[in-house]
Design brief:
The chain is built from 20 helices and nine strands. The chain is α/β, with parallel strands linked by helices.
Length: about 450
C-alpha cells in the first residue's frame, strides 16, 4: 500500500479500500508524503517528538515505545487527517478510517476484530483513524479501550472540541493529546503553491496571479482543505475556458471569485481597504450603528479576512469602547474569539455577528481605557514614588523589623470591607485616574465608588 491507498468507510460504515488517483480531489492528492511536507505544526514535529517516533520509528523498539493512542485536537483544515494518514503510510501500516457521524459500536468492533486477526496471522498493523471522535457516545468510546490497551490497533482520533470535555476520561488518560495550531497565511500559501507546481496536483498547468493567490489564501481562513478546494475549482474553470496553446493557463482574481460563488469584493488585506474597512467597522460599533457594523463585518467575511483578526478587534473594542458600561460585553467578545478558534468558518460568522450586535447596542464608556492611559502617563513621566511601608510584603523573616506591613488594616475587618488608609505613593496621594460615566452598569459603579472614596479619604 502506498501513500494514496487507504481503507475508509463505505455505506453503513463498512470499511472499504480506496486509492487517490488522478480523479481524486486535489486536497486528497496533495496530502503530504512525509512529515517534512506538513505545513505548520512545527511544535509537534521536532526531532524525537512523540509524533515523529510514531510516524518514523527508528527501529522495532522505538515503535513499541511510541504512543499507542493519539488524540489530535485542532480546528478544521489544519492537518489532522493528514497526520493520521502519515502515521499509517510512512511506516507501512494499514489505514482504516471511521467517521463518528456514521459509525457505531458494531463497526468499531468489526475493525478491531479484523486488526486482531491480521496481527495473529503475521499481517500488517492497523491504524484506526476516527474523525470527530467527540460525536461518539460514552459506550462507543468505551468500546475502543480494549483495543488501545492491548495495542490491537494504533488509534488516532481527531476532534475540533476540547477533549477534556468531549472524550471520556479513561480513553483520554490512555492517549497522547496533541494540540494542532491554526495554519498561518504563509502555511496556506505554501500549500497552494505546492499544489500548483507538484505533479500530484496541477503540475504547472495553471499560473495563479498574485492578487488571486492573496484572495484565495484570505478566503481559506487558515483551512488548507478549503484553500485547495477553491484552487481546484478555479483551475478547473480556467482550463475549461482556455483555448489550446502552450504554457500554463492564467488564473486571475475574477476566476477565483467566481469559483467560490462569491460576489467580487475588492479588499486588499495589506493595503488601504484592509485598514479602512476595519476602521469603519470599529467606529460603527463605537457609534452604536449595529447595521453599519454588520455591513463591514460581512465585507470582511466575504473577502476572506482572518476571522481571528476580527475577533481580536472585537475583544479590544469591548474593553476600550464598551468598558464598564456593560462588562458582559468583554465576556461575549472573548467567548466569540474562542468559539471562532474552535469551529472555524463559515459558521464562525454567526458567532462574530452575535458579538457585533452585543457590542454595537451596548451602552458605551471609555473611562477604564482613559484611566489606564492616565496612569501610564504618570509612570512614564517618572511620577512613581515608593510603595507605602504598610503595604509592603511582610511575609519574610525580618520584614517586621524594618516596618514592612506595620499599621496595615485588613479590609475585610473594616465596615463594608473598605479600610481607610493610603494606598497610592505619597507623591500621588489623591490622584484620580478612573472617573465613571453615568451610562449603563457604570452608573452603579459611580455611586459605589463615590462612597468608597469618601471612606478612603476619611
Amino acid at each position: 500500500m502506498d501513500l494514496f491507498d487507504a481503507v475508509t468507510t463505505g455505506e453503513h460504515g463498512t470499511p472499504v479500500t480506496t486509492r487517490a488517483g488522478a480523479g481524486a480531489p486535489l486536497a486528497v492528492r496533495m496530502r503530504p508524503a512525509s512529515l517534512d511536507e506538513v505545513a505548520g505544526q512545527s511544535h509537534l514535529l521536532v526531532p524525537g517528538s512523540p509524533l515523529r517516533r510514531l510516524v518514523e520509528p527508528a527501529d522495532e523498539s522505538a515503535r513499541r515505545a511510541a504512543p499507542g493512542s493519539v488524540i489530535l485536537w485542532g480546528p478544521p483544515g489544519v492537518g489532522k487527517t493528514t497526520l493520521a494518514y502519515l502515521v499509517a503510510t510512512v511506516s507501512g501500516r494499514r489505514f482504516v478510517e471511521l467517521s463518528a457521524v456514521t459509525a457505531g459500536v458494531k463497526e468499531v468492533r468489526q475493525v478491531v476484530e479484523d486488526a486482531r486477526r491480521r496481527l495473529a496471522t503475521g499481517g500488517e498493523e492497523t491504524v484506526l483513524f476516527i474523525d470527530e471522535v467527540h460525536r461518539f457516545s460514552k459506550t462507543q468510546q468505551d468500546a475502543l479501550l480494549p483495543s488501545v490497551e492491548n495495542r490491537w490497533v494504533t488509534l488516532v482520533a481527531a476532534t475540533t472540541e476540547n477533549p477534556s470535555f468531549s472524550v471520556n476520561s479513561p480513553l483520554l488518560s490512555r492517549s497522547l493529546l496533541l494540540t494542532l495550531k491554526p495554519l498561518t497565511s504563509d502555511d496556506v500559501r505554501t500549500l497552494v503553491r505546492r499544489a500548483v507546481s507538484d505533479e500530484r496536483g496541477l503540475g504547472d498547468a495553471v499560473e495563479l496571479a498574485a492578487d488571486a493567490e492573496d484572495q484565495l489564501v484570505r478566503m481559506a481562513g487558515g483551512d488548507a482543505r478549503k484553500a485547495l478546494t477553491i484552487l481546484e475549482a478555479a483551475a478547473g474553470a480556467a482550463l475549461a475556458d482556455a483555448s489550446d496553446g502552450d504554457g500554463p493557463v492564467p488564473v486571475d482574481l475574477a476566476t477565483v471569485e467566481r469559483a467560490v460563488d462569491v460576489a467580487a469584493v475588492r479588499y486588499d488585506r495589506d493595503g488601504d481597504q484592509h485598514y479602512d474597512v476595519i476602521s469603519a467597522f470599529i467606529k460603527s460599533i463605537r457609534g452604536s450603528d449595529v447595521d453599519a457594523a454588520l455591513h463591514y463585518l460581512a465585507r470582511m467575511v466575504a473577502a476572506g479576512e482572518d476571522p481571528r483578526f476580527i475577533a481580536r478587534r472585537l475583544v479590544i473594542s469591548a474593553a476600550e469602547d464598551v468598558g464598564m458600561a456593560d462588562p458582559s460585553a468583554l465576556q461575549t467578545a472573548v467567548a466569540a474569539a474562542q468559539a471562532v478558534q474552535l469551529i472555524g468558518m463559515p459558521e464562525g460568522r454567526i458567532v462574530l455577528a452575535e458579538a457585533v450586535v452585543h457590542l454595537a447596542t451596548a451602552p458605551k464608556s471609555n473611562r477604564a481605557y482613559a484611566g489606564i492611559n492616565a496612569a501610564m502617563d504618570d509612570v512614564r513621566a517618572g511620577r512613581i514614588g515608593v510603595v507605602p511601608p504598610h503595604l509592603r510584603d511582610a511575609h519574610y523573616a525580618g520584614a517586621e523589623k524594618i516596618g514592612h506591613g506595620k499599621g496595615y488594616r485588613y479590609s475585610h475587618d473594616a465596615p463594608h470591607a473598605v479600610a481607610p488608609q493610603q494606598y497610592l505613593p505619597d507623591e500621588l496621594a489623591g490622584r484620580r485616574y478612573y472617573t465613571p460615566s453615568d451610562r449603563g452598569y457604570e452608573r452603579q459603579v459611580a455611586e459605589r465608588l463615590e462612597r468608597i472614596r469618601e471612606i478612603l479619604d476619611s
